[in-house]
C-alpha cells in the first residue's frame, strides 16, 4: 500500500525493467508449453464431444461446446495451472534463495525497496502476462478442436469461423480474460508471500516452493468455481 | 581530540522466538576505530549488526548511527546517512542475477544523480581499490571464488565512499592465505580512507593484528570491552577458553 502511494509521487521510479523481465519470464517463455497443452486439450475435447454428438446427429453443436468450454473454462484454467507450476514456483524459489543468501538484506541495507523492486513488478507482470497467455491458449485449443471437428465431423474451417461468433457470446472471451487477470494476481501474491516467509535454510526453501505451487493451483480451482457460480447467468 | 561516536547501543534488548538474545547491550564506537565484536555462536552478534544497520529493531533500548536513532528516523534522514555507511554480509550477498559491474554500480545508480560514464569510472576505481581485475566486471557472482565474492561485496560496500563499514565475518570461508590478504586489504583501506570499521570476527589474526578495540558479547550483554590485552585479562569462561593457548573447550562456549 505504502509502495503504491510512494509511486504516485515518484512515477519515474517505476520499475519498468523489472516489470518487463517478469512479463518475458512468465509470459513469453511459457508460449510453447501452453500452446502444446492447449492444442492437445482442444483435440481431446473435440474428439470426445464429436463421438457423443454424432450419435444424435448434432454435429454442428461441437462449435458451441468448444467455444464456450475453451474460452470460458479450459483456456484460463490451463494457462493458470501451467503458470502456477512454472512461474509461481520460480518466484517463490527466487525470493527464498535471496533470503538464504542475504540478498534481500543487502538490498534493504542499500536502501532499495524490496516491495517496490521485487514484489510489485512480479504481481503486476503476472496480472498482465496471464490474460495474454489465456488468449494464446484459447487460440491454440480452438485450433486443435477445429482440426478434429473437420477430421471427424467434416465441419469446414470457414464454417467454424463463421459459426463461432454466432453461437458463443463474446462475453465468454472477456470472462476468460478477466479470470486470467485475477488468477495472475493471486498466483503472484501467493508465490511472493510464501517466498518472503522462507527461513534461511534449504529445507524451508524446498517446502516453500512446493507449498506455493499446491496452494496456488488449489486456489485457482476454487476461484474458478466461485467465478462459475457468480457468472452462471452470463453469456451461456 | 576526541572523535564523535558513530555507533551507539544503549541498553539494547532483543527478543527472538521467545528468547532474550540481548538483555542489556551497551556499545560505543568512535570514528576511526577498528572495532571487533566477538562472541560464541548464538550469542547474537549478527543480530546486533542487523540492528545497527536498521534491518531489525530491538525490543527495547536505543541504537544510534551517526547520532540518529533508528527508532525515530524518518525516510529523509535515513537517506542522508545512507551513503555514510556500507556493509559486507557474511556470504557476500551479491545479487546473483547481476554481473559484478552491476552489483557494484547498484548503490550508485540508486542515487539517481550520476550518469553512466561516471558510474562506470567509479565502479572501475572500486574494483582496483579492492584488488580485482577489470575482467571480473562482466562475470556473474556464481563464477567467482569465495575470496573474490568477498572482494566484490567489499567494493559494493565502498561504492558510496562511506565513513563507516560493517563487516560480518570478513575472513570466514576463506583459506588462510586469502584471509591474510583480505586482512591486509582492510588495513590498507582503513589507513587510506580513514574508515571506521565495525566487524564480527573469530579470526585471531584480525583480532590481534588489526583491531583497536574488542567487545565481547556473551550472556546477552557486552561482558568485556577494550584492547585485546585488556580483554584477555577478564575472568569469564568464554574469554578464558577463547584466548587460552591450548584452546580448551569449556561447556557453554560453543552453544
Pick out its properties.
heterodimer; A: 236 residues; mainly alpha; 9 helices; 83% helix; B: 255 residues; alpha/beta; Rossmann fold; 6-stranded mixed sheet; 4-stranded antiparallel sheet; 35% helix; globular; disordered C terminus
User: What is the molecular shape of chain A?
Assistant: elongated
Multimeric status of the protein: heterodimer
Gap between N and C termini of chain B, in Å? 42 Å
Q: Give Rg of chain A in angstroms.
A: 21 Å
Count of domain modules of chain A: 1
Fraction of residues in β-strands of chain B: 15-25%
Number of strands of chain A: 0
Biggest β-sheet description of chain B: 6 strands, mixed
Q: Largest interface here, residues on each chain?
A: A-B, 14 and 20 residues
Apparent shape of chain B: globular
CATH topology value of the domain at 1-84 and 213-255 in chain B: Rossmann fold
Annotation, overall tally of beta strands of chain B: 10
**Parts with pLDDT < 50 across at least 5 consecutive residues of chain A:** none
- The chain-level structural class of chain B is alpha/beta
CA radius of gyration of chain B is 18 Å
Indicate the proportion of strand residues of chain A.
Answer: under 5%
Helix content of chain A: over 70%
Judging by the overall fold, what is the CATH architecture of the domain at 1-84 and 213-255 in chain B? 3-Layer(aba) Sandwich
Share of helical residues of chain B: 25-40%
Within CATH, the superfamily of the domain at 1-84 and 213-255 in chain B carries the name P-loop containing nucleotide triphosphate hydrolases
Name the average pLDDT of chain B.
Answer: 85
Amino acid at each position: 500500500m505504502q509502495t503504491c502511494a510512494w509511486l504516485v509521487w515518484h512515477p519515474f521510479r517505476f520499475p519498468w525493467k523489472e516489470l518487463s523481465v517478469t512479463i518475458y519470464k512468465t509470459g513469453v517463455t511459457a508460449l510453447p508449453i501452453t500452446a502444446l497443452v492447449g492444442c492437445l486439450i482442444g483435440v481431446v475435447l473435440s474428439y470426445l464431444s464429436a463421438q457423443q454428438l454424432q450419435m444424435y446427429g448434432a454435429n454442428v453443436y461441437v462449435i458451441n461446446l468448444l467455444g464456450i468450454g475453451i474460452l470460458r473454462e479450459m483456456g484460463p484454467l490451463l494457462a493458470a495451472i501451467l503458470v502456477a507450476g512454472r512461474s509461481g514456483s520460480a518466484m517463490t524459489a527466487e525470493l527464498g534463495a535471496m533470503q538464504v543468501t542475504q540478498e534481500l538484506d543487502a538490498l534493504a541495507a542499500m536502501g532499495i525497496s524490496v516491495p517496490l523492486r521485487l514484489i510489485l513488478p512480479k504481481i503486476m507482470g503476472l496480472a498482465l502476462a496471464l490474460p495474454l497467455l489465456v488468449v494464446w491458449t484459447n487460440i491454440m485449443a480452438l485450433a486443435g478442436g477445429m482440426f478434429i471437428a473437420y477430421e471427424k465431423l467434416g465441419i469446414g474451417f470457414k464454417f467454424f469461423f463463421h459459426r463461432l461468433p454466432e453461437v458463443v457470446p463474446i462475453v465468454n472471451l472477456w470472462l476468460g480474460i478477466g479470470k486470467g487477470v485475477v488468477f495472475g494476481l493471486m498466483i503472484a501474491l501467493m508465490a511472493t508471500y510464501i517466498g518472503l516467509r522462507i527461513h534461511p535454510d534449504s529445507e524451508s526453501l524446498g517446502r516453500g516452493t512446493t507449498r506455493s505451487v499446491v496452494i496456488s493451483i488449489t486456489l485457482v480451482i476454487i476461484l474458478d468455481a466461485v467465478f462459475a457460480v457468480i457468472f452462471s447467468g452470463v453469456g451461456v | 581530540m576526541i572523535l564523535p561516536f558513530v555507533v551507539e547501543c544503549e541498553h539494547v534488548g532483543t527478543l527472538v522466538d521467545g528468547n532474550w538474545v540481548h538483555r542489556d547491550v551497551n556499545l560505543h564506537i568512535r570514528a576511526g576505530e577498528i572495532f571487533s565484536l566477538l562472541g560464541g555462536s548464538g550469542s547474537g552478534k549478527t543480530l546486533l549488526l542487523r540492528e545497527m544497520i536498521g534491518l531489525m529493531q530491538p525490543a527495547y533500548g536505543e541504537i544510534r548511527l551517526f547520532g540518529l536513532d533508528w527508532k525515530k528516523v524518518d525516510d529523509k534522514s535515513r537517506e542522508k546517512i545512507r551513503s555514510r555507511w556500507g556493509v559486507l554480509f557474511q556470504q557476500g550477498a551479491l545479487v546473483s542475477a547481476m554481473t559484478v559491474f552491476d552489483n557494484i554500480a547498484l548503490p550508485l545508480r540508486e542515487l539517481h544523480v550520476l550518469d553512466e560514464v561516471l558510474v562506470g569510472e567509479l565502479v572501475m576505481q572500486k574494483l582496483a581499490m579492492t584488488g580485482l581485475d577489470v575482467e571480473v566486471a562482466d562475470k556473474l557472482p556464481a563464477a567467482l571464488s569465495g575470496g573474490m565474492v568477498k572482494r566484490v561485496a567489499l567494493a559494493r560496500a565502498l561504492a558510496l565512499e562511506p565513513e563507516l563499514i560493517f563487516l560480518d565475518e570478513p575472513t570466514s570461508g576463506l583459506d588462510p592465505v586469502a584471509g591474510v590478504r583480505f586482512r591486509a586489504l582492510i588495513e590498507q583501506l582503513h589507513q587510506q580512507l580513514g574508515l571506521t570499521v565495525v566487524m564480527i570476527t573469530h579470526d585471531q589474526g584480525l583480532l590481534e593484528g588489526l583491531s583497536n578495540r574488542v567487545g565481547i558479547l556473551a550472556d546477552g550483554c557486552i561482558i568485556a570491552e577494550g584492547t585485546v590485552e585488556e580483554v584477555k585479562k577478564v575472568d569469564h569462561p568464554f574469554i578464558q577458553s577463547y584466548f587460552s593457548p591450548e584452546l580448551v573447550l569449556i561447556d557453554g562456549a560453543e552453544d
